[in-house]
Amino acid sequence: MNAERIFTAIADPVRREVLETLAKDSPKTATQLAAVFPITRQGVLKHLHALQEAGLVTVRQSGREKRYFLTPEPLRVLENWAKSVGTMWDERLPRLKEMLENE
């Protein structure tokens, strides 16, 4: 899993909303997703492609339709990153507070 692709994919607010929509009710077709967002079906497909490239969405063919599913495993990369950054700040903030109080 490429962390940079994951971060790039979720940097866009529409993509985050697509992920949230799929997390609540999956699978969805691009047409169903386009009905939820104020963008065209083609616009939704571009976002889905970026999410798929990042490994956040999988697609399955069902007859003539493609159904999109949330793939939660890559989100663990974000969770691990957030934990490491949080731990760093948990360690540094008390020292910063102490330093500022001593000035």
Automatic annotation (TrEMBL):
The keyword Flavoprotein does not apply. One of its GO terms (molecular function) is DNA-binding transcription factor activity. Pfam families: HTH_20 (PF12840). Residues 1-92 form the HTH arsR-type domain. InterPro entries: ArsR-like_HTH, HTH_ArsR_DNA-bd_dom, WH-like_DNA-bd_sf, WH_DNA-bd_sf. It comes from the Bacteria. The keyword DNA-binding applies. Keywords: DNA-binding. This is Transcriptional regulator. It comes from Paenibacillus contaminans.
